[in-house]
Design brief:
Blueprint: H1 2-11, H2 14-23, E1 32-33, E2 36-37, H3 46-63, H4 80-115, H5 129-133, H6 145-159, H7 165-187, H8 200-234, H9 239-272, E3 287-288, E4 292-293, E5 302-304, E6 311-313, H10 318-332, H11 334-346, E7 350-353, E8 357-362, E9 364-370, E10 374-380, E11 387-394, E12 397-403, E13 409-414, E14 421-426, E15 429-433, H12 438-448
Parallel strand pairs: 13-15
Antiparallel strand pairs: 1-2, 3-4, 5-6, 7-8, 8-9, 10-14, 11-12, 12-13, 14-15
């Protein structure tokens, strides 16, 4: 049950992010509606408004039913089936809104061609050399130094304390995120300028609007992550507070990201709302389905997103193709994570005793102990209180490294609901094993003893 709650806390916030970001696409941003560049005179056109309304309707039809589908996993007792359910749900969440967007973006593109709403610069690149030559003013990187140092505190305390490697890896991950936000802050200055037309002053204003809003976000995200890392360390043994901390952190990051993108788009739309003329940037032909950017004439690897948040890649660059292929394969593989967990849960633990060694097996040989290295052996009817540090901790399977109070670090391969268990000390290490068949466990113990 706790596993399902944690998964729901992690997955549920993704729904409002995608839903409200998609709804916002019907509002003009630098003259772009639903990923299509339109002249200002077309923004209030009745057919444009009708397409936008139909888009919202089908967005609701496809996305609203996904919310109640987060409930069934709470009634599942295993971990593999809920994980498969959540991963499949996530895959549907990633595909459904963008499929609706691509369909209605196609309708709006057809209307644009029929009405001849093309810019005089359609299909051409408006590279503002003057704007590119103006040095960008940046905030000092020292703003990121305090949160990075704060995020390192739990790593220091854990490494020189009990060394719970599972927690330590989590603290290192979030500390790396604090550093990553600093890197992303610098990347926003490497993305090309926000060109709208030939007006250099307007280009600089649009670029500053995006860089200011996103620069502020990356600083906030770095600070929030650093503080959150400390909170995780403080409440590592308090599961309810740990979950609350995760929920609050996720909500703050998501709300800040959405607010940042909306603020940047609103500022850019205000700057371009009253601009007229036939020469304005129109790159619709370079955006496949309105989502994927492919422009061999653009040397930039990173470009600002039209759909979603922040930056995308130029698929005309070889490295971008590799990155996109990896991301696509990762996305399609999501449900198989749950299938793998189901296989783990449904495979029984086995003990195999030969004349020279004891093997604890689960899907493969987990541990092999030479009999002549065994120092002591004990049959346990109950497991000691244990905390997983690295490995698997399902309700019906413990496998990997665990911390067991006075016994210290133990290596386990057992089914916790199927006593008895064999505790073995060998080569200065402690092991706890069991076979899915309790009679086999007892027989192995008797033979070793």
């Amino acid at each position: 049950m706790m596993f399902n709650i944690i998964m729901a806390v992690c997955f549920a916030p993704l729904w409002p992010v995608l839903y409200f970001m998609q709804r916002n696409l019907v509002k003009p941003k630098k003259g772009i509606i639903l990923g299509v560049t339109l002249p200002p005179s077309a923004h209030g056109d009745s057919e444009v408004l009708e397409i936008c309304a139909e888009f919202i309707k089908w967005l609701n039809i496809t996305m609203l039913p996904l919310l109640p589908l987060l409930i069934p996993p709470f009634f599942m007792k295993t971990a593999g089936v809920p994980m498969t359910w959540f991963m499949t749900w996530l895959l549907a969440l990633l595909i459904a809104p963008f499929a609706v967007f691509a369909a209605y973006r196609g309708k709006l593109m057809k209307l644009k061609r029929d009405r001849n709403w093309n810019s005089a610069a359609s299909g051409r690149a408006l590279a503002d050399i003057k704007a590119a030559a103006i040095p960008a003013k940046r905030l000092s990187a020292l703003w990121f130094l305090p949160p990075v140092i704060i995020s390192l505190v739990p790593i220091f305390l854990e490494f020189f304390g009990e060394k719970n490697w599972a927690y330590l890896s989590v603290y290192i991950s979030f500390s790396a995120m604090a550093v990553l936000f600093w890197i992303l802050y610098h990347l926003i200055y490497r993305v090309r300028a926000e060109v709208y037309n030939e007006d250099t002053a307007l280009t600089m204003a649009l670029t500053r609007a995006r860089r200011y809003n996103w620069g502020k976000f990356w600083i906030i995200a770095s600070w929030v992550t650093g503080v959150f890392n400390v909170f995780m360390w403080v409440f590592s043994d308090n599961t309810p507070m740990f979950l609350v901390a995760i929920l609050v952190y996720t909500a703050v990051i998501i709300i800040a990201a959405i607010q940042t993108e909306f603020a940047a788009r609103a500022a850019q739309q205000r700057l371009t709302a009253n601009k007229s003329g036939g020469l304005y940037l129109d790159e619709d032909d370079y955006w496949m389905f309105g989502i994927l950017y492919y422009n061999p004439n653009d040397s930039h690897f990173l470009v600002n997103d039209r759909v979603g948040i922040n930056m995308s890649v130029n698929l005309a660059r070889p490295a971008a193709k590799i990155l996109m292929a990896f991301a696509l394969l990762t996305m399609l593989a999501l449900p198989f994570v749950g299938i793998w967990m189901m296989a783990e849960e449904n495979t029984p633990a086995k003990l195999v005793l030969s004349d020279t060694a004891l093997t604890a097996r689960h899907t493969r040989d987990q541990y092999v102990i030479e009999l002549n290295t065994i120092e002591s052996v004990e049959l346990l009817q109950e497991l000691p209180a244990m905390t997983r540090t690295a490995g698997t901790g399902f309700e019906n399977l413990y496998k990997g490294n665990f911390s067991a109070g006075r016994s210290g670090s133990v290596r386990v391969c057992l089914q916790p609901k199927d006593p008895p268990f064999i505790m073995i000390k060998a080569d200065g290490r402690t092991y706890i094993f069991s076979d899915a068949d309790s009679n086999v466990t007892k027989a192995v113990f008797e033979r070793i003893r």
